[in-house]
Amino acid sequence: MSDERIITAAIVTTGEKSDGKYLKDLVEKSKEAGMTIDRIIGDTAYSEKDNIQYAKTEEFQLVSKLNPQITQGGRAKVDEFEFNKDAGLYVCKAGHMAIRKARTGKKDQGKNQKRHLLL
Fold first, then answer.
1. Is the pLDDT of residue 13 over 70?
2. Shared domain check, 66 and 23
3. Distance (Å, rounded) from C-alpha 97 to C-alpha 118?
4. Distance (Å, rounded) from C-alpha 101 to C-alpha 84?
5. What is the total count of domains within the chain?
6. For residue 11, is it within any domain?
7. What pLDDT, on the 0 to 100 scale, is given for residue 108?
8. Same domain, yes or no, for 86 and 100?
9. Which 3-state string (H, E, C) describes the chain?
10. Of 23, 30, 29, nearest to 64 (Cα)?
11. What number of CA atoms fall less than 13 Å from residue 95's CA on the CB side?
12. Which of 23, 29, 60, 108 is most exposed by smallest CB count within 10 Å?
């Protein structure tokens, strides 16, 4: 939409489709219509990683609240693991403690190894 509130591009989809997937197409249609784009304002659907990278390469500002999936991860508060300080292991909500600590990465490289807990 322009400053004069004229719609410069539109894509009609069904309700279950994510709006954010069509940002690039909308930007290209608006440019074809003669618009100079310096800022795009959208809802949370537009804050996906591909759109953020696209905004940087095309040099426009993307104003969109970050998706909680990006900022908080996929776990709900009730699904988080608790750390048992005495055992030095994590415990799931069902009460099962990790059975061992595992490290991945190259052997004897110290900083290249990452710790993983197996339940």
1. yes
2. yes
3. 9
4. 13
5. 2
6. no
7. 63
8. yes
9. CCCCCCCCCCCCCCCCCCHHHHHHHHHHHHHHCCCCCCEEECCHHHHCHHHHHHHHHHCCEEECCCCHHHHHCCCCHHHCCEEECCCCEEECCCCCECCEEEEECCCCCHHHCEEEEEC
10. 23
11. 0
12. 108
71-111 residue pLDDT tens: 556 666 666 778 776 777 888 888 888 887 776 666 666 55
Domain hosting 55: range is 19-71
**Whether residue 63 is found in the same domain as residue 24:** yes
CB atoms within 10 A of CB 113: 14
pLDDT exceeds 60 at position 117: no
Most confident of 7-16, 25-34, 90-99, 107-116: 25-34
Cα of first residue to Cα of last residue in the chain, in angstroms, is: 51
